[in-house]
């Protein structure tokens, strides 16, 4: 196996691996319908695992201090999550709800979605993904508190194994006042549930 300058396997190695998997599954990678499949899979994986090439924390570095005294919860709901289970390399799909209690600055809301996508576009377990998002926001923005809830359906459970379509996993990470202040915690969860 060849390696590129970063020490990663080359694109040719990845293409060969996909061909091998097609053969292992019992099909002919040289038949018409599969001829371009290795290239399409490698391109798709480049997009689906783009999180390895980014530092999601960097999205949070540009903030706004002119907030007019605003010091209540900021919550962005229903951020689409597309990630891959690190145990089976099968997708899990769902929604993230990300909130924070600003200290003296806020971040553009699109940056919260970019942080979610940056961490999600890696091989993951949902529990770790939830914690990484919350910890990055806490570390960079230094708010009074952070709350992250992710609800998703895991293909490794719905397509194989226990075959339980429709089952969803919910994870949460709460930090600072969102965890420690009962009123703020309740407000966060109320907004996640009902805040439409």
User: What is the tally of beta strands?
Assistant: 7
Which stretches are low in confidence, meaning pLDDT under 50 for 5 or more residues running? none
Query: Shape, please?
Result: elongated
* Distance N to C terminus: 52 Å
> Roughly how much helix do the residues carry, as a percent range?
25-40%
The main sheet comes to: 5 strands, mixed
Mean pLDDT over the residues: 93
Description:
Helices cover 39% and strands 24% of the residues. The chain is built from 7 helices and 7 strands. The protein has helices spanning 11-25, 37-48, 109-120, 126-141, 155-158, 177-180, 182-194, and strands spanning 63-64, 74-85, 91-101, 106-107, 123-124, 145-154, 169-176. Strands 5-2-3-6-7 form a 5-stranded mixed beta sheet, sandwiched between helices. Strands 1-4 form a two-stranded antiparallel sheet. Strand 2 (74-85) and strand 3 form a beta hairpin. Helix 1 crosses helix 2. The longest helix is centred in the last third of the chain and has 16 residues, at 126-141.
């Amino acid at each position: 196996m060849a390696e590129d300058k970063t020490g990663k396997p080359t694109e040719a190695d990845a293409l060969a691996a996909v061909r091998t998997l097609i053969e292992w599954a019992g099909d002919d990678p040289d038949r018409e319908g599969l001829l371009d499949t290795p290239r399409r899979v490698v391109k798709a994986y480049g997009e689906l695992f783009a999180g390895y090439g980014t530092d999601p924390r960097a999205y949070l570095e540009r903030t706004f201090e002119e907030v007019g005294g605003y010091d209540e919860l900021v919550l962005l709901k229903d951020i689409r999550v597309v990630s891959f289970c690190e145990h089976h390399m099968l997708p899990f799909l769902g929604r993230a709800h990300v909130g924070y209690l600003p200290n003296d600055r806020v971040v553009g809301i699109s940056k919260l979605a970019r942080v979610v996508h940056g961490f999600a576009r890696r091989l993951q377990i949902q529990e770790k993904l939830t914690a990484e998002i919350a910890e990055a926001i806490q570390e960079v923005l230094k708010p009074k508190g952070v709350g992250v809830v992710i609800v998703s359906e895991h293909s490794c459970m719905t397509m194989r194994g226990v075959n339980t379509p429709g089952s969803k996993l919910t994870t949460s990470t709460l930090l600072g006042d969102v965890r420690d202040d009962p009123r703020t915690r309740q407000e966060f969860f109320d907004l996640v549930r009902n805040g439409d």
